[in-house]
Design brief:
The protein is built from 3 helices and 10 strands; from the N terminus they run E-H-H-E-E-E-E-E-H-E-E-E-E. It is α+β, with helices and mostly antiparallel strands. The protein has one domain. A hairpin with a 3-residue loop joins strand 8 and strand 9. The radius of gyration is 15 Å and the shape is globular.
């Protein structure tokens, strides 16, 4: 089995599309099988629902990752919806140097704009593309959250 190979720039350039079908189709064309067919949907406030389909093993900048696509749609609507974020986590067994490798990869195409007291780093590319780099915590491994609307960001 060939492991899909992606870059942070490719992923960040997909986000402004927002259309789930278009983004999932593009990921599939690059060998990354993330599908919403049969995905579990959970309700959210305001009559919407979300799903978090994932690809267990992808290579992003040569770094082994698990990729999760966060999709929202109007409750009860089949298919589609819009992409809210793409998350990257260490693939099983790659936790050791994952965060250091990701920071190096981010420095090639993104600009570090700020770091908060908890070590959360915010990288930007252009006016809209943002990557939030979360260090490991007691409840979560290190991970990246890529999205295009920083005004909606929460530190939760």
């Amino acid at each position: 089995m060939t492991i899909p190979s992606l870059t942070l720039i490719i992923l960040s350039e997909l986000l402004p599309l927002r259309d789930a079908t278009a983004i999932l189709t593009e990921l599939a064309s690059r060998g990354c099988d993330v599908t919403i067919d049969g995905a579990a949907w959970s309700p959210v406030a305001g009559g919407g629902e979300y799903s978090r389909p994932e690809a267990e093993h992808v290579s992003v900048e040569g770094i082994d990752c698990r990729l999760i696509v966060e999709i929202y749609r109007t409750a009860g609507q089949p298919g589609g919806g819009w992409i809210d974020a793409i998350e990257l986590f260490p693939a099983a067994g790659s936790e050791g140097s994952w965060l250091t490798s990701m920071r190096s990869a981010l420095s090639l195409g993104f600009r570090l704009s700020t770091t908060d007291a908890d070590g959360v780093e915010i990288y930007q590319r252009g006016a809209e593309e943002e990557v939030i780099c979360f260090p490991p915590s007691g409840i979560a491994p290190p991970h990246l959250l890529m999205h295009t609307h920083p005004q909606l960001r929460t530190d939760a």
